[in-house]
Write a structure and sequence with these properties.
5-stranded mixed beta sheet, 7 helices, single chain, alpha+beta
Length: 480
């Protein structure tokens, strides 16, 4: 089967020159993202070595929490490449072959394109014209600039979502809080093989995927910010997972710039790295389409919404009221309108930050906090007004797992919890009147949409520990 494809080229910030000597590699694997019924994005980065730097510098100033009032160097690329976990890029060429047969007979080909330092040696293949509910097989090939033959390849596959009027069972994961210093295994977080074992259809990382500001080394330059992504996504378990499982990415504060960040904030501790640098680096390091807020349909039973919580927000310290917003008026109106227009059996809003909570006293960064009470109440009351009994919220950001039911509106929210037990903590305590479930440990959340033995649609939320064991279940039958 033939179909058309378009190339997507990231226009990104400049970087120092690195010349590839000898073969080039795909040492960070690939990432599959933004699946729709007729499109997908495949991310790849040409690397100088097949594996991460396992022997580099790993002492003081490289690993651990940021100490108050400590000095943080302005490392550039040549210094960063000497650090433990670094993955230097290399100039080279990339192409992609794709077909609906495993042997890649008569494939469509996205032809060779060069990658250079200004894009961190990254290429994002934007594939369009795909068929709904179809399995595609593909191979990414990397070659040096001056050679015809590929010196590295990665093969994988994905299946596009079905049409709106066709049922398909769907299962996906939700994660947050991947602080490198809190890794629970040297090859990567335990949650990744646990999620892979469940054979989920896709994953939503809700943000705080890396921590630029409050773990070492503080990312004060573009090279240092990229290093945070390189050392995380060159871990073997993460490579294996992302080579196979599609993703829809969200960002939050720590992987944009700094804690509780908003667009006009200019924290001196991060300079010369800027807000705009953070936005470009995020789009560079993950497969991402035009908008960071979007909605995707998975057959008759499920539609998800992914929202942007940083780009449009008012300052956290501004007075609360009708003008204060996390989402921005345009995004909020799009969100409400598209939810009402959806005829999906189940609707799931995945938010980087809580909407129901409750959160700790004194927090000032999400819709469950008093400082954003107006917009939080507006949205929660709106869900009650329109009797959206089949709308559920999944959120990241919080370092504990919970299931909350808003006592005023009945809106259900499920917090996925942090990526490791080591990163858990900070809970406000268990409010048993609001929360059927509360657990201060790491793990992940899965959302499962299926037809039961009687043929009726069901949604089941499952909280898992870091090994994948189910520690809580909530099941909801669709309105008949």
């Amino acid at each position: 089967m033939r179909y058309s494809m378009l190339l997507s080229i990231c226009l990104l910030i400049p970087f120092d020159f690195v010349h590839a000597a000898g073969p080039v590699h795909l040492g960070m694997g690939i990432k599959i993202g933004e699946l729709t019924s007729d499109s997908a994005i495949v991310w790849a980065r040409v690397t100088k070595h097949p594996h991460r730097n396992r022997a580099g510098r790993a002492g003081e100033g490289v690993l651990g929490p940021v100490r108050r009032n400590s000095e943080h160097p302005l490392w550039e690329k040549d210094q960063v490449n000497e650090l433990h976990g670094s993955m230097p890029g290399a100039e080279g060429r990339l192409q992609l072959l794709i077909a609906t047969n495993k042997d890649l007979n008569e494939p469509s080909i996205v032809p060779w394109e060069e990658v250079h330092d200004e894009v961190d040696y990254v290429k994002q293949f934007a594939l369009t014209g795909l068929e709904p509910g179809t399995k595609y097989y593909f191979r990414v090939e990397a070659a040096p600039l001056d050679e015809e033959q590929a010196t590295a390849t990665v093969e994988s596959s994905f299946t596009t979502p079905s049409e709106h009027d066709r049922w398909q069972d769907v299962s996906f994961g939700v994660i947050t809080g991947m602080m490198y210093q809190d890794l629970d295994h040297e090859d990567g977080f335990r949650i990744f093989p646990a999620m892979q074992e469940l054979d989920i259809d896709f994953l939503v990382p809700t943000g705080d995927t890396v921590y630029y500001d409050n773990e070492l080394p503080r990312a004060r330059t573009v090279a240092m910010a990229r290093y945070h992504w390189h050392r995380m996504y060159s871990l073997p378990r993460l490579i294996e997972f992302h080579n196979q499982i599609p993703t829809y990415w969200e960002k939050d504060d720590h992987d944009t710039l700094s804690d509780d960040a908003w667009p006009t904030l200019r924290p001196k501790m991060m300079l010369p790295l800027t807000w705009d640098d953070g936005l470009e680096i995020f789009r560079e390091q993950v497969p991402m389409g035009e908008n960071t807020h979007r909605t995707i349909r998975w057959g008759e039973g499920l539609q998800i919404w992914l929202v942007e919580g940083r780009d449009f927000r008012s300052p956290n310290n501004a007075p609360d009221g009708p003008e204060k917003t996390i989402w921005g008026v345009e995004q909020r109106e799009w969100l409400m309108k598209s939810i009402l227009e959806s005829d999906a059996t189940f609707k799931v809003l995945v938010s980087p930050t809580p909407i129901v909570g409750p959160d700790r006293k004194g927090k000032k960064d999400n819709h469950s906090n008093e400082v954003f009470a107006f917009e939080g109440n507006l949205f929660r009351d709106w869900t009650r007004e329109h009797k959206l009994n089949n709308l559920f919220v999944c959120c990241g950001d919080r370092h504990w797992q919970y299931h909350s039911v808003d006592p005023q509106t009945g809106l259900h929210e499920f917090s996925c919890g942090p990526a490791s037990d080591e990163h858990a903590g900070g809970t406000p305590g268990h409010d048993m009147m609001v929360q059927p479930f509360h657990r201060v440990k790491g793990g992940f959340l899965t959302v499962n949409v299926f037809r039961n033995d009687g043929g009726f649609p069901e949604l089941e939320m499952r909280h898992h520990d870091v090994q994948g064991k189910v520690v809580y279940r909530y099941k909801h039958d669709a309105d008949k």
